[in-house]
Every structure is written in C-alpha cells, then in structure tokens.
Task: structure prediction
Amino acid sequence: MYPEASGSPDADPALAGPASGAPCTPDRGAAPEVAPDWDVLPDPVRARLAEVASAALGGMPATDVPAGLRRFSRFTPAKRGRLGGAVLVAELRDSSAFRSAVVAWWDEHRPGELAAGPDEPLTAAAAAVLTGAPGAGAAVAAVARRGETTELRAERDEALSRVDKLTVELERMRAELAEAREQTRTTLADREAEYQKLRRKVSEQGSALRSAAEARSQLERTVALLRSGADERLAEIVAERDRERERAEHEHRRATRAQAEVAAARQAAKEARQGDEVRLGLLLDTLGGALSGLRRELSLGGGGPRPADLVRGAGAVRSGAPVDNLAALDALLAMPAAHLVVDGYNVSKTGYPELPLADQRTRLVGQLGALAARTGVEVTVVFDGAAVVSAPTRGTRGVRVLFSDPGVIADDVIRALVAAEPEGRPVLVATSDRAVVASVRRSGAHALPSSVLLARLRG
Result:
C-alpha cells in the first residue's frame, strides 16, 4: 500500500498536488521546472511505475514488448511487479518507445485511471513521470514530502505511545515502592520482637549450659576411670587377635600349597592322558598302514574293482558331476562325511528375494540347520561381508556361517573351502553362479543348483 493524502487540517498544502488530473503547469514567474531524476525517484513512485508497467506488459502485443522483458510477460501482474520491478522501471527510464506503449495501453484499456485527482498524488506523480509532464518534478517532490511527513507522524505517535507506557510503568513502580516501604516497616517491627525473644532464649540456654558443663565434668571423671580398665582389656584382645591372625595365615598357606599340588596333579594327569591318546593314535595309524600294506601284498581288495563296480547299466555319481535332481542330492547327502557348501546370497535371493538381506540370512540358516539335523551332513554357508550392515547372523547347531573379509568376495571363500578338503571327500557346492560352478567342479566338488537345494529345504 502507498501513503495517501491526509484529511487533517494540519496537512501540508504542498502535498495536495494539482486540482485535477491534468499535468501541473508552473507559474510564469516561477523557476523553470526540472525534470525528475529516474535514479533518485522515491520508492513509492518507483513501485507505482512498476505496477503500471507490469499491468500493461501482460496485455501488449508481443512485438511491442522489449526483448529484455519478454520473460516477464508470462508472469502474473503481481509476480511481474515483485520479481521484475527494477527491470521494468529501468526499461521505462531508458526506452521512450516502451513508455509510449505503456501510456497507450492504459489510455486504450483503462482510460482515465492514470489521470488521477488530488486524492491520489502517488498515481498522479507516476503518470507525470511516465508522460514527461511539466509538473512531474513537483508531483514527485510532493510525494517525497508526504512520505517524510507520514514517517515523522509515525515517529511522533510511537514516541507518544512510549511516553504513555513509561508513565504507566512509573506509576506502577511508585506503588511498588510504597508497598516495599510498608513491608520494610512491618519487617523491622517483627525483627525487633524476634530479637527480644532470642535474648530471653539465650539467657535460658546460658543457665542450661552451665548445668551441662558441670555434668560433663562429672562424666569425664567417670570416663577416665573406665578408660584405665578398658586399656588393659584392649591390650589383651589385640594380643589374642594377633595370635588368631598368625594361625589363619598359616592355614591359608597350607591351603594354597594344597591347591597348587592338586592343580599340578591334574595337569600331569591331563598331559599323561593326552600323551596316551597321541601314542594310541600313532599305534592305530601304524596298524592301519600295516593292514593296508598287507592287503596290497596279499591282493585282498582295496586296490581293484569291487563286484558292484562291474555291474553294467548303472553308474555312481562321479566326483565333480552336477546334481540336477532331488534323488541325486539325497544320495550324496547320505554319504558319510559329506560336506555341503552354500553360496548364501545366491540361494537366498533365488528363493525369497522379497525379504531384506538380514531376514534372508536368518531364514536360510534356519532351513539349513533343519537339513543338517535331519541328514547329519556338515553345512557351511558363506555370505558376502560387504552386504552386512547389522549384527551378523549366528550359526545354528550343525551349520557354520562365514562372512567374507573386506575386499574378499564370497566366491573366493567358497573356492578356498573346496580346495582345503582332502581328496575323496564328497563336497557339494550349492550355487547358480556359472564361474563358481566351473571352478569347484575342476577341484572335484559336485555342483548343486540353488533351485534344487531350495526344493529340498522346502520338502
């Protein structure tokens, strides 16, 4: 909003402006009119010029819009005035063609609105500057004076308001001071009465103190008599305590030596038992080697084919062969000392990809635990450690859970597990990764597709 003409009797007559919408015409005897400086126009006049140009810009033909203002023509009038006000005023200052186009648009679409009367000096000043009327400087000066007068009146009203507030505060403080004085007089009277009461109490307590001093003297004499007898009894008690302490320390040393002897005996027995077990193991290994050598010397089995190996029309599962059905999987799981190595995320993402990774790990480990309990097979499941963002899943009974170290992928851990197994032990690797399948089969392990293992876990 822009300041408007005041209706009070003390309003500045110079603010009233011309009596009609016609441009102001200086008196013949007055000084020559000076055109207003666009760079020092009052802010209300600049804002009004921006509103006038913004309203006209939206309705102008595209050919009449300057190139620098075309991006503002798509805005609403209010947004144009807010965002492009400075640019619009600068274009009005620098382009007489744009000023003429704006004036022509207002004359055509809003005739008479720019010719404002004395009740709208701001519009009159903006119209005078826009049209270059002879009275433009006086109209702009009148608006500037009106703004200064409005600011001075606002400052005066604010000062009067502060005076009223200070007056009220002063009256309140005077009332509080009178009340504080009355409270001080009352407090002094109460303290005087309390002082007299304390004096009487001190006098009474002085008499009681003298009586207590006499009683204390009597008690001190009694305590001196008792202390002489107590010192002798205390010396006897201390001597007895020292004797008991020496006996307790002696018993403690004996108990410590006994515990050390028992621990040494247990350790010796343990070492002897371990030595016996080692010697027994070596003896069994020696006997086994001797039996194997004797079998080879006598050509008693072990080195040649068995009768079942000569039967045609059937074949055993070869080491490194793929396991594509549940029957072959069950046959391998039934073999003694079989080891099932599971590519964790490859299997879990195949079976239940909709679950979060932590839930996938928990579900898979639980199902593998049930399989291990049912078949007795050794199970090791390997997960990529890089995907673990919470506490790792603990293994259940019969299931070993491994996470690859930083910078190591689970595929390499699986290959290392297969390579660590002794030759001849049945090893199954559950994965659908072709690279892992090819490498573990070359190492003699059986490749088990993830879907086959999931079918067995569900069954």
